[in-house]
Amino acid sequence: MSFLTPLFFRSVPVLPERQCQKGMVIMKHRSIAIKVLVLLIVLSSLISAAACTATGGGEGTKGTSGTVGTDVTSTPETEPPYPLDIVDYKGKSFRVTLLSASDEREFFVADGANGDDVDVALYTRNSIVEDRYKIKIEPVYINGEGLFGHTNTIADVILSDNDAYDLVTSYAFAAGPLVMNSCLFDWKQQKHNDLEASWWIKSINDKFEIDGHLYTAVGDTNTYTLIYTYAMMFNRTAGDNEKITSDVFAAVRDGSWTIDKFNTIVSNIYNDIDGENGRTAGDYYGFQGECLTNLDNYNFAFNIPMMDNREAGEAGIRFVYDGEKLHDAIDKIIRLYWNNSGSFVEGDNVDAFVNGRSVFSTMLLNDCFSTMRNMRDDYTILPYPKFNEDQKEYLTGMMDNYMVIGIPISERDTDFVSLVTEALNYEAERILYPAYYDDALQNKYRRDDETIEMLNILMNGRTADFGTLFQSNLDNISCWFRWIVASKENTSASYVAERKDYIEMLTAAIVTKYREGALG
């Protein structure tokens, strides 16, 4: 089949209507004196942040009170011993592929010079690992046009057996072809990586594994999985005015925060405030949304898997994206988007929310650090509503351009990459996540006391799907929900039926590649 030929992904079309929100700061060389100063700054900021008592904090959330994160304020006498091997690599470069667009900020390298807590913590994390292992983290910026350009370039280099990279990063949605072309080693076979450790994101990696093989992984090496998490934003000021705030929080807490309840709440909120005839983007609504990537998250929020690797037996993984639940879920979202008197979907939902023209909107956490910094009203971060009350947990996913990492088969020293990557993950959990989650997200941009409680519920529900990782090899399966809702007609039964046999054929080929792939 054609998709198994080398560089199959060259023929993969660019996914339509994708939104990318990233930024980049290039790492600069700094003197030892500056490194020491930066370390003192970040430790001071982390100690200050730790002094503030956080509310809530469910199991699995990074760096919060009562959670998995290590206490970064501990004294050397009380800190646990360093758990990893220490090797003197005598100045060896650790080469990491990053995207090259000038308007992107990568959360893997930073210069620590702008005073931002997260930037300083990231620089400090890297400095500690560099000093401990006597290495130099070297970003390798990849040129390539289009959404798959970086993947094309990386694969060209790897398949030519050019030892140019030690660790490769890729958008999750573009990483599948690297596996299909046998470009990556198996993380499960590496000497120094404990994928059960808290500094790896097990809830995601488990979904990317087949028969004990894992070629792309997600850890705390960067914070993309944090900032690209989907959330429901709630204008607390508007909610107070509408006298629904207490009901919303109570529903989240007692498990009745469902899409049906949300549809009912939203339907009672509308006001013509721009004076124009008809319903326009300038009016006031209960909900303003967008018909692009935020719709993809309902697969996760409603617990409707696309691909399932649990109890798949000889199949390894199964296509499960069909049935009555998918049909009912699309019905509920079509009602919200196109048949609810309190909804509007055709404008700029972020601008509407920031300027107080909607009570609810779906966004990324990254919006808390950009446009919503100028918001006058108080707001709270909520989980997406559940499918129904029988669903046990609130769930959410990430925008599909979060980063996954892999070890190229052109690498000459996999033990080196394995150990340094583990160290970067370990120090990220200890230093980077507390700075981001506790200080920046929970404190600096907190608008009310309930935000921490709701944020912990949201973050504890992060999940993923194999269909996202391999969507370029699976007929863009993660976009199906979005496209059906956008059509304003629930054609899910016929849509899936027409594609099911084809998807199952493609899935079998992916499983074969997993089982015969590079295992070094």
What descriptors fit this protein?
alpha/beta; six-stranded mixed sheet; 520 residues
Instruction: Give helix % range.
Output: 25-40%
Termini separation comes to 26 Å
Q: What's the gyration radius in Å?
A: 23 Å
**Main beta sheet, described?**
6 strands, mixed
Shape: globular
Tally of DSSP β-strands: 12
**What is the SS-derived class?**
alpha/beta
What would you call the quaternary organization? single chain
Total DSSP helices: 18
Mean pLDDT: 83
Uncertain stretches = 1-61, 63-76
Please state roughly what percent of the residues sit in beta strands, choosing from under 5%, 5-15%, 15-25%, 25-35%, 35-45% or over 45%.
5-15%
Give the ordered list of helices and strands: HEHEHEHHHEHHHEEHHEEHEHEEEHHHHH
Describe the overall structure.
The protein is α/β, with parallel strands linked by helices and 520 residues long. It has 18 helices and twelve strands. The chain has helices spanning 32-51, 117-133, 149-159, 176-180, 202-205, 224-227, 236-242, 245-254, 259-267, 293-296, 298-301, 324-338, 349-354, 414-444, 450-460, 466-469, 480-486, 492-516, and strands spanning 92-99, 135-142, 168-171, 230-235, 270-271, 284-288, 307-308, 318-319, 343-344, 358-364, 379-382, 403-406. The strands form four sheets. Strands 4, 5, 6, 9, 10 and 11 form a six-stranded mixed beta sheet that branches. Strands 1-2 form a two-stranded parallel ribbon. The protein has a two-stranded antiparallel sheet with strand order 3-12. Helix 1 (32-51) crosses helix 14 (414-444), helix 2 runs antiparallel to helix 14 (414-444) and helix 12 (324-338) crosses helix 17 (480-486). It is globular. Residues 1-61 and 63-76 have low confidence and may be disordered.
